[in-house]
Design goal:
alpha/beta, globular, binds zinc ion
Length: 491
Amino acid sequence: MVNFDIVLRGGRVIDPESGMDAVRDVAIAGDRVAQVGTALPPGRRELDVTGHVVTAGFIDLHSHAFDLGGARLQAMDGVTTALELEAGVAPVRIAYERTAAAGRPVNYGFATSWALARMEVLDGVRLDGELRTLFANVAGPGWQRAATGPEVRRVLARLEADIADGALGIGVLAGYVPAARPEEYLAVAALAANAGVPTFTHSRDLIEFAPDTLIDGAEEIVRAAGETGAHMHYCHVNSTTLRQADRVLGLVERARRAGARVSTEAYPYGAGMTGIGAAFLAPERLRERGLEPTSLTYAPTGERIATADRLRELRAADPGALVIIRHLDEDDPVDRDFLLRYLLFPDAVVASDAMPLTWMGTAPEPDAWPLPREAFTHPRTAGTFSRSIRVLTRDGGSLSLPEALAKCSLLPARLLQDHVPSMRRKGRLADGCDADIVVFDPARLSDQASYDDPTRPSAGIRHVLVNGEFVVSDARLVTSARPGRPVRAWL
Ligand SMILES: [Zn+2]
């Protein structure tokens, strides 16, 4: 007697691991994929998905969108697991507890945070498991200074305690702390290697941008991998490397050939977004990356920042406020090609760097859906995965659909599965896998979000299931759905 809850009937089932790409039925029982096959017996609920692709939900290794609206935009882009690994949070125990209590549409998980650990040890900031605490203190001079030996030991102790609590790795915002000594970075990597978890680095400045950097940001990552044996994940290569693809990708390739474990990720947008108080956005430093104050758009009001003085004023008034930073020109074919190269790099995964919503001139309405115009974000929050698949398979790239999907699901799962056993059941679509599934129309799949309209959900996504529950059904968000579960190391 079979007891299928849901049968997705007659779709084009793509499993990037086995290479299956064929018309099949997918039966779901509870929170697992019970069977993939042909002419399966009926389930309690039957859905005809003829003409649609059925595949594993997307796993985002780089999401800061831990508000409900941001998470919903990601779900509407096919994301079923969104992990905060780059900035990280601390203490992770509190972040997991609070997220579980609030409920999430998608699966969630956290790395611990080197930046927050530094804020605690060097600046006395009280940590509360919230990312906004990091942004609020991002401009504080205390935590950005070089640390003494005893201070480094206390930072490492905080990271270690979080790893014991199930943190998925160590997020290292090295690029926000140019004065941190390279020895400290190596000590963090050594700790990660000992604990068997990866680090996720927002690299320090490249030597091409900041000739006075204590060490080149790309060299620092590959050196740490070589010297400590840690798995070093190089976050958003697109936005920290910009046009230095030849040198940086070449360096990563050589390090890998020599046996170092260095993985990379990218998102297909020319602009970045972060707190306006970040070190590299100081007016006197913008030139390093070819930026002007007018390259920045202040999220809370949409203001294009006109002058260095205005930038100084805004940095002082609200350093944690977000800004869009236009680095590469998406309309320029040369710059577009850089973005494509980062995505096409062998084993590079798609990761969004999704941001929480900024509410422009109104009080936040956490539960509002559809999102009102006052909710602002970077379009990468809503569109990274659909856009990557479009670009990789149709608009520039020539990957097959299964190859592009692997970068969104299988490869990120594999990147974590050595220390996160639950990842062995994600990123694939086969009997026994978690029922994290996306169903989309391959002819219509596309991002819709733009810099002017950043919260427009992607097109072509028909259904999204997380742990066997619909989060998107017939292209509509299920507003009550909170099936997300914690993803932790070792458990
Ligand atoms: Zn970053």
